[in-house]
Amino acid sequence: MSLDSIYLKQEREAEWRADLRKKTKNKDRMLIQRVSMPELEPEIRVNYQDREVNSGLTRELAMQEAVRCMDCANPTCIEGCPVSINIPKFIKNIERGEIQQAAAVLKETSALPAVCGRVCPQEKQCEAQCFYVQKLNQPAVAIGHLERFAADFERESGVMSVPETAQPNGIKVATVGSGPAALSFAGDMIKKGYDVTVFEALHEIGGVLKYGIPEFRLPNKIVDKELENLQKMGVHFETNFIVGRTATFDDLKEKGFQAFFIGSGAGLPRFMNIPGENYNGILSSNEYLTRVNLMGAQYEETDTPVLHGKRVAVIGGGNTAMDSVRTALRLGAEKAMIVYRRSEEEMPARIEEIKHAKEEGVEFHNLCNPLEYFADENGRVNRMKLNRMELGEPDASGRRRPVPMEGSEFEMDVDLVIVAVGVSPNPLVPSSLKELEVTKWGTIVVDENNMQSSIPEMFAGGDIVRGGATVILAMGDGRRAAEKMDHFLQKKYAVN
Amino acid sequence: MTNSIESLREIEKAGAGAVVLKSVFEEEIYLEYAEEMKKLGPMDNNLEFLDYYDYEIRQGNLLRYIQLISDAKKALSIPVIASINCVSNQEWAFFAQKLEEAGADAIELNMFIRPSDLSQSSRENESVYFDIATRVASKINIPLSLKLSPYFSNLAGMIRDLSFAEISGLVLFNKFYSPDIDVEKETVISADIFSTDSDYTLPLRWIGIMAKRVNCDLAASTGIHDWQTVVRLLLAGASAVQVVSAMYVNGIDVLKDLNQGLSDWMERHNYASIDDFKGKLSIGNDIDPAAYMRVQFMRHFGDHD
Q: What is the pTM (predicted TM-score) of this model?
């Protein structure tokens, strides 16, 4: 799946790229400041669930930023990309004004470039490996912003490139789930000529892209547009289909499916199991975000309600917690708070998300941890007891362990609490396949080299293997699984 | 031994009056968390998944313990006492409530606030015991006992004052893992974890001194390996004795020997019930225990001049 170095070298030696490198000296490229992403003002955006915070780069800004990229002979940025996008090639296409070409390059390896350009933690991946960061201690080329620009440009142009697909080979494969891992897998397998069906339990395709990530970060219409591309390539989608219940794996095998990719995700909510957590007005981030993001509960005309709160506490420090607290603001909270037991530096959330949350007025109560909830006479939460924490010795994650400060208990008024302390893998597939090996955390055990489970024709990736991880890692798993399943099936059919 | 229903049945059959289940240790949660983190594989850089994972472990451990209590209550007719060892103050009450709900007949708080913690004064250390005892007692309706260490500068005062803190009993004393040194390898190792048959003298002394000065029952723990020691401790004023190491070393049936020995001794000494002799040799209220102990010392070593 990784790009061959000879291939990269050949691509780099293309005349147009050589010309571009000659056009601007590297020392001049280095003088350009990294672009700032235009953002919707906080006071406006907090009123809208469906208006993106980041407005996107203009063509001029994108082309200017693309000049910063020095088209390195050894593009370490690609090593940082879980789906191995040919980063210099797409950026250089932007530099020369060939934006559609840039989008086509993205789609060679990424099924969802507009998604990744928005939600990937590039600062920990491709951008962390950028020459500017590694050697010059300067801000990286804004790879993520450029990726989003190219994908959006293509979509808005109305002329979407459809990657080539091989001749159909008649072999049927299926995915369980339709999130980023499964979609990425489907995108690669359809290109290889397989007959691909994506089975999804919900009524909408997209998995966490639809139900988990709010529209102010990733509009659903963007996801739908990416899905259209897969449909054009020939991927079949079946919604409202629970594999293991609607039909068993054996049923599907009888229908001719030869292999499966399990991408059923980690949508099982976790709670802290502290006193009072059962009171009304305390819900999981999964439920809260799904009601809003997938079911449109913020609109009066929809059937799905969602609890509104004036004083909302979100427990947790990851991206899901940020999504939840910022959603609460948009739903009318007068006070939207993050309660996290470690310091801000230790929060798993992206720095950009924390920054946006603060700009929007979210209060951060770091080094605090809930102990108990209290409710009014109707059983609705109205208060929580917390204690303050201090940081002790590092724990297994390398971060300093939060230790309660004895005698530091205090109380806080709340009327809605969102618990965003992590998720667990979906137990449905493992429970319907007793011979499928799972870890004690409920994740499917796979050979990390080929993403194959203990059942040979079952491959898996994404959150069902990793726990609740990122979109891009899931996509990387999907790509890897596609490559290995292809080998598996080719060998099987060659033998047969 | 107390994690298995089969063993618990054997213990009951051997004549135990009650069982104290192995403690739920809050510290174990962190240790298990640390161990699990070493084995994560694809999840090992997934901070959001890991961040509160210790709560998952805690819940898992608690559910297993609750199941153990429930199964033990179904299998046994003797009381089942759940035991807790926590680090942070608020967890004691939480666990105690859960274990009461699970059906435990009583709760033992296995308490040890490290005297090696240099950041705490002795007064601060001591007040934690009272805070925890009061907090837990306010949350449960079943009997509560505290198992203590002997490491207090004013041990007598602590025992007396704690006995007035809405508890039903005090267990004297905890036995801790002690460090030792392997001189050949020049490494710190663990000393032998089992008590010896002379370890009873410490609880014997303090039960003897305090039995008539407290507002709750006292139970003896550590070093009870034979029936004679059972008798000693009852004479000193203990209402119960806890046996652990003797069972590991000699088997569960050692309980039969202890009960039989006690019974035979009672018959020889014409005692119809334990109440007839319990506390017979504990120090009376009219005698200053400090003076008593000094006199004993002087008499003993005076005779050896």
A: 0.86
